[in-house]
Amino acid sequence: MMSTDLRSAMGEFKVHRVRFFDYMPSGIRALAFNQDTERMAVARMDGSVEVFHCSDRFFQEKIIPGREQCGIEGLSWVGERLFSAGLNGGITEYDLTNQKVKYTIDAYGGPIWTITGNQQGTHLAVGCEDGTVKLFEVNEDQIQFERNLDRQKSRIISLSWHPSGSKIAAGMMDMIQVFNVETGHSIHRMLADRGAGTSRSKECVVWSVVYLSDGTIITGDSVGMVKLWDDQTGTLIKSHNVTKCDVLALSVSQNEDSLVAGTSEGIVVQFQFVSMVLEKDDKEWVRTRTFRNHTHDIRAVAEITTAVVSGGMDAQLVVRPLLDKIEVRSAASALRKIHFPHRRLVSCARKSGLMLFQYPGHLELWRLGESEGKGTPGSSLFVKRNPEKLLQLKVKGEDHIRCSAVSPCGGWIVYSTASTLRLYRLHCDNNNISITKISKLPKVLSSANQLCFSSDSSHLFSASAQSSVHIASLSQSGCKFVGTLKPKSGSHQAIHLLAASEDGKWLASANSDHEVHIYNLQTQKAHCTVPVYSSAVTAMGIHPATNCLFMMHADQQMFEYSIEQKQYTDWSRTVQRKGLHRFWVERDTPCLNVMFNPQNPSHVILHDMYMLCIIDQSLPLPDDKTQFYNQLTLKSLTEEQRKSQSHAFKVCKTFKDILCVELMPDQSLVVVERPLEDIATQLPAPIKQKKFAT
Amino acid sequence: DSVHHRRPPPVCFVPSRDHIQRVVGFLIWRVPSSVCTKIRLNTFKETDKMSELTLQFESSDDELPEEVAFDASKSVALKSVKDALDAAKREKNLLKEKRRKKQQLFQEQKKRKLLPQELLEEFDTKPQNVHMENMSDFSLPVSYRVMRIKDESAAKTLQQRATDFVQSRLYGPGTKRTTNAELLSLKKKRGASQGAAVEFANKKLGACKKARIKRSNKRFIRQQKLIPF
């Protein structure tokens, strides 16, 4: 940990740079795009499933945490329902409203390697280890096993339905089979070549298969070839050697004119169905573009209308817009890499200098260090006492943690998994830590989507089903249920953000349907609802003095809503009228925390992954012609000039890969950084690539 | 005159003029039947490979080609083919014999391994002494399930085996993998601001390994008494 002195036109701050949160993202295993709702479902190696909203700046709308030994292998949308299958042999349906697993049924075929739904939305096919393709009928509330297709001798690694639903192509070991769905018999058996050299001794694994409506079957295999087969004759049409290692994933566009292939080397290759000679009708699949945006194996690719989305073992979701499909150059046409989750993993006990880090399987409580002396801006201060880890709390059971919080006084810790909620009392005097579990919890506190403590640590707010919030009071004697806050009307979507006011009177909740409800805690009734905005809320906070709710959205717009007057504030209206500066709106990572400075009521502190910003509401707003990043320029000016030149947005870009920023009562900032290089050193091994001049 | 036609060019490489009996491979000549050529067939006498026929072509621009009767050469060719087929048949029969003998051996070993017949018959006739309790008396608490230990471990092994399969195909032997440190160091080497390899620049990397090496060095020095004290 380092302490830096950050002094600029923004004000003087001592900064604790925290790098001891060893957050490790999990690799991406599968992608599934829903054309109608424009949502991208992402399955990770640790079993968690995330849903991104593709047209809302790829905001991570929903997260369903995973569990140990999950082994998820495939995802498939059927209408608006999401299904997954994995090596544990079961098919899982997700309840996307409440962000949890709805049910899991065993397919009784051994580990499942692939799951895919037909275009008609009536059936799901899974490919199993025992060589069977099992068909499940999708009913209104459940799926039901219908029948098996003819059992084969080797495992089924990949499946693809023909758009008509009458045939299904299966990629297996050393071969591809085409089945007639009605009879269940195999129509064709195409043998995949094992290639030359050392790969001859290993079986060729057909990792991915795509069935086009004109009868062409495209496969990607472990030899590194993308092969095109004809399903009428059962023969090979063309083969393209794409890479020396494996081609792991294929995806075809909606109108079947573009195909992308992801390889072990981390490159994505695009093939397009074009005619080689202008104005001639004979089209063929030609390799066009190569995208090198990954360093490790790409396990899944998906082609959405205007972009290619890829993800793999380097745990980043890369969205590469296809510039020939975009008409206007905007924020949507830039390359986007999503590294960190769009949820807070760090909570801070401001009054006692403690930080709680949320890992999938455990929690860590750290005490911040102390420094002494003053320094010049940008210098490192001498660290008097090192930060120390006080507590490591392991989760019982196999489920991963969904949310956690530490109370502002540092006396309570709470976390929730998909099935349980645990509350602990913490006693911390200088060198002794003791923690006791509160065993008698109110029955309603069984699982929470989001957790929040009141500012005086007397109450716990737990967001649960049907967009409601349970209130429990905390005292020496334990935890007692007080009441439930229910919205007057509206959706039942899960709440992902909670904000409590400093004076303990108000509570705001934001759910995945973009609804923000404000409740009066004294009457335990709904007070008002903020007008619904088209973009999701990524961070919100209630100002301690004015009780105004400040909201940041995924499209980088900001709103300030006065709770007591039930309307937007004048400042907020001015911002909307004037518009935000282009540089602010074009930022590609969302703001995850909104904080206020008690000593300076006109300041709002925000951060995203690459910057820290203090908005001074008393200063004029910048227009498009003003220099946006002007902190360095202001430093060189005199006091008089500074007053005329400065605008409301003071951005600091010193810190990178920021996970969380908090303001402590002693006017020091805590910046939790997780350098991407440190993550990169702990990823699985990459393929060795020979580069020129190395 | 048909005898002195130009020889058509060969499809593959012509052997040297030295009369070395070698396997030359199969020379494909499109020779019109009117042109007489001297072709000698050599079948291998050492191995019984039926597919290898050597042709050696002796050509000379000076002398007249010898006349060889077509019938004689035809019978020689047929005979050699028949010999090869016979040899293959013999080999097949030999292998068949070997396999039959092995199968017999396995049967006998299996017989030896099994318990004597009498003992098995005794088990069959012995009455079952175990009484199954009336199932309805036996009730479990709601949250409990009954599962055989056999089934549980079998299922887990299947998943583990599947994971191992994928691991070995992607990261196992035969794959060309490198370390993350090397990938990052290469990026630094070719990057805008070139710097030292990641293992040297980043102190945290391999910290435990470095500590272990340091400790073993200290131990070595102490053992060898390299530093006099």
Automatic annotation (TrEMBL), chain A:
One of its GO terms (molecular function) is RNA binding. GO terms for biological process: maturation of SSU-rRNA from tricistronic rRNA transcript (SSU-rRNA, 5.8S rRNA, LSU-rRNA). SMART domains: WD40. Gene3D superfamilies: YVTN repeat-like/Quinoprotein amine dehydrogenase. InterPro entries: Quinoprotein_ADH-like_sf (IPR011047), UTP4 (IPR046351), WD40/YVTN_repeat-like_dom_sf (IPR015943), WD40_repeat_dom_sf (IPR036322), WD40_rpt (IPR001680). One of its GO terms (cellular component) is t-UTP complex. This is UTP4 small subunit processome component. It comes from Cyprinus carpio. The gene is LOC109110043.
TrEMBL record, chain B:
The keyword Oxidoreductase does not apply. GO terms for cellular component: nucleolus. InterPro entries: NOL7_C (IPR012579). It holds the Pfam family NUC129. The keyword Transport does not apply. Residues 78-112 form a coiled coil. Keywords: Coiled coil. GO terms for molecular function: RNA binding. Residues 144-204 form the U3 small nucleolar RNA-associated protein NOL7 C-terminal domain. PANTHER family: NUCLEOLAR PROTEIN 7. This is Nucleolar protein 7. It comes from Cyprinus carpio (Common carp).
